[in-house]
Amino acid sequence: MKRELPNVQLCDAQPFIFADWRDTRLEKVKTSTVRREMNLLSGVFTVARREWGWLDTNPIADVKKPKNTQPRDVLITPSDRATLNQLAGYEPGQNCKTLRQYACAALAVACVSAMRMSEIIGLEWDDIDVHRKVARLRDTKNDSSREVPLRKLAIQVLEGLSANPKPFPVDRDSLSVTFMRLKIEAGLNHIRFHDSRATAITDLAHKLPINTLARISGHRDLKILQGYYRKSMSDIASELD
Could you give phi then psi for residue 136, rounded to 5 degrees? Predict the structure, then answer.
């Protein structure tokens, strides 16, 4: 972003300049990235205007943000996992000998826990309490630890890895590349590993209230989770009777 920012003095900063910058950025990066960068710049200009008195107006305030792209609506099915498992020669509960098997094991855990790949790989045995059925995540996207309940499939997978110095003694880049190659070979090019998170959250939304689900997923904004609560009025009426 630094190299592409308009080279103008603060007093010459005008909305049309940043509108042009926005359009240029959209040709190179995702909509969400541009929205994030615009929020960052707006914050800088707000401080310059309110606290330092360097500006009379915030030039970003009048620049329209690009609309958010529609979120992916892809879930990983048990059939998808079975196809990948067969191709990798993996069964939940066994130890892993290849990166392909570790990819399948990590995917199984992710699909029932809503943990990210980095969170799964970062697990140490001290973070896992099988008796309480809980995993403690220390290195998360939000830089705050949280606890995640471990369901039967996750425990089965982890118990199969008990001989390892840590559950997943692999690095993220290698696992990502391996999963990408495996899914293509399996004819499942439409899925991404991160779809496992939506898969888990969608399932948990049928079982848990939104505040509890947020504790598991780590979402701070409940609005993001509201889209997973898609019960029809007919379903709600059945629960009320």
Answer: -100, 120
Are 25 and 101 in a shared domain?
A: no
pLDDT tens sequence for the chain (241 residues):
544 677 778 778 889 889 888 988 888 888 888 999 999 999 999 998 899 988 888 999 989 998 876 667 889 999 999 999 999 999 999 999 999 999 999 999 999 999 999 999 999 999 999 999 999 998 777 667 899 999 999 999 999 999 999 999 999 999 999 999 999 999 999 999 999 999 999 999 989 999 999 999 988 888 888 888 766 667 667 767 6
Question: What are the structure tokens assigned to 164, written together?
Answer: 């390892």
157: domain range?
78-226
The C-alpha atoms of residue 138 and residue 109 are separated, in whole angstroms, by 17
Domain match, 39 and 106 both: no
Number of domains present in the structure of the chain: 2
Q: Are 103 and 179 in contact (CB under 8 A)?
A: yes
* End position of a domain, from candidates 50, 67, 88: 50
Same domain? For 222 and 136 the reply is: yes
Structure tokens at 207: 């079982």
151 flagged as catalytic: no
Catalytic position from the list 138, 141, 206, 230: 141
Q: Is 3 a catalytic residue?
A: no
CA-wise closest residue to 213 among 204, 203, 224, 202 = 204
22 is catalytic: no
pTM recorded for the entire structure: 0.71
Residues 199 and 163 in one domain: yes
